[in-house]
Amino acid sequence: MKIKEVSKLMNGEDVQMKLVLRSDASVPRPVSINISVTAMSYNGMPLAPIQSELKKEMLLPGKPLHVPVVVAFSEYCKPMLDSEVMKISAVVSDTSSPDQVYLVENDLVLLDPPLDIELLNEARVWREAVVEVAFANPVDQTLEKCSLTLPTAASASSDLNGAAVLKACDILNQRLLPYKDRDPHGTWESWVNAAYFDRVNLSANGFYRTPDLGYDFETNSGRAFNYFSYGVCCSEVEVDCLTGVHKNLSTTIVMDVGHSLNPAIDIGQVEGAFMQGVGLFTLEQLLYSPDGVLLTRGPGAYKIPGFGDIPTQLQVSLLRDAHNDKALYSSKAVGEPPLFLAASVFFALKDAIAAARLEAGLNGPFRLDSPATVERIRTACADRFTKMCPAAEEGTYRPWAVLV
Q1: 130 and 247 share a domain?
Q2: Domain identity same for 117 and 86
Q3: What pLDDT band is residue 61 in, cutting at 50, 70 and 90?
Q4: Do residues 345 and 248 touch, judged by C-beta distance below 8 A?
Q5: What percent of the chain has pLDDT over 70?
Q6: Which GO MF terms are attached to this record (predicted)?
Q7: Is 336 noted as a catalytic residue in this protein?
Q8: Distance (Å, rounded) from C-alpha 391 to C-alpha 372?
Q9: How open is the CA angle 331-334-338, to the nearest 5 degrees?
């Protein structure tokens, strides 16, 4: 049995559950109720335990037993940070016959409706009765919100939200300016205290939009971006001409991120974006059947970078003394821009292939499409084996895959 309950909990509300137990036996029955509360992931896997308790009750004949269960907000607020489903499991058994389990796993049940359990004389095999409730995560509701805030994509958080915070701080400083002028040797606490007792508003809202942006695609004029990020990269690779397999030996990157707000985070962003580019330029190829069916589905057919694809020596440095007067603390956003630095791996592969072709007596330009997969590298390294497999004339065959 699976029941959908659409009610949602309110912000910071304690979860209340009530079990109603009934028995058709003519004598009192001691029952054991084992209750466990778990935060669940979106795919139904347990994330973290919240609480567990064991209740022992006496179930009288003809009289319903009401067992309240309360999960306090203070108990579940932290474990529910990454979850919207709380699972409350209750197992009811007869303590005089421990092998007789009358109820297994039930999800969140609110006071209305209660969970009604009838204990029978004969032990039976019970199926799972699952009750799901759409759970409004109260933890999210308690966090401070800013209206009209954009998602934190493309590393724009510092530029947009930081500038908005700066505007709000400027407003507050302006309101405190009379108290600073009146008491120039005072402290921040004394200025705020004086403003508070003068009933000055000590909260402010800041809103920021990047100025002077606007690009006309028809006239190819205007400013599409407030500033640009720059980086340089040098990569060294090794190619096995017989199999087409390559190894990324070393990569050195210097990235301009202005005055970094957090060098550890920025370097991690550069490393991650570079490896994403390695997948783009050397591994990740979409193949479709002639009927339009995507063949490269899932990890078995669509390869993304792994640990072995990381260069043996990967060095990332941030450019020093790089000022940027268009962002907070002279910083620069960094996220996707270093992705294109992985093109150095692609062109290093092409140089290596050119050297192999030169040894085979082939000179001049040749075509190498991105991504430079194993098949493309092997085919480009022309030798006596590739001559044994000449390309078929177009129109004489039906391709097994189509490149888009």
Answers
A1: no
A2: yes
A3: confident
A4: yes
A5: 77
A6: iron ion binding; oxidoreductase activity; protein-glutamine gamma-glutamyltransferase activity
A7: yes
A8: 19
A9: 135
Range of the domain at 195: 157-223
Whether the CB-CB separation of 334 and 316 falls below 8 Å is answered with: no
Whether residue 6 has pLDDT greater than 50 = no
Q: Per-residue pLDDT for 119 more than 60? A: no
Question: Which residue out of 336, 359, 375, 393 is catalytically annotated?
Answer: 336
Q: What is the pLDDT of residues 186-207, one digit of tens each?
A: 999 999 999 999 999 999 988 8
**166, 133: one domain:** no
At residue 80 the predicted structure's pLDDT band, cuts being 50, 70 and 90, is confident
Q: How confident is the model at residue 358 (pLDDT cuts 50, 70, 90)?
A: very high
The whole-angstrom distance between residue 7's C-alpha and the CA centroid of its chain comes to 27
Q: What is the pTM of this model?
A: 0.61
Asked whether residue 387 is assigned to any structural domain, the reply reads no
Same domain, 202 and 275: no
Same domain, 126 and 170: no
Q: CATH number of the domain at 172, please.
A: 3.30.365.10
> Is residue 334 pLDDT above 60, yes or no?
yes
Task: Classify burial at 88, counting beta carbons within 10 Å of its beta carbon; exposed 0-12, middle 13-18, buried 19 or more.
Answer: buried
Backbone angles phi, psi at 304, to 5 degrees: -110, 165
Per-residue pLDDT at 94: 72
Q: Do 33 and 135 fall within a single domain?
A: yes
Q: Is residue 197 situated within a structural domain?
A: yes
Asked if residue 126 has pLDDT above 60, the reply is no
Which domain CATH number covers 37? Answer: 2.60.40.10
Q: Residues 374, 378, 379, 384: what is their CA dihedral angle, to the nearest 10 degrees?
A: -160
84 and 175 together in one domain: no
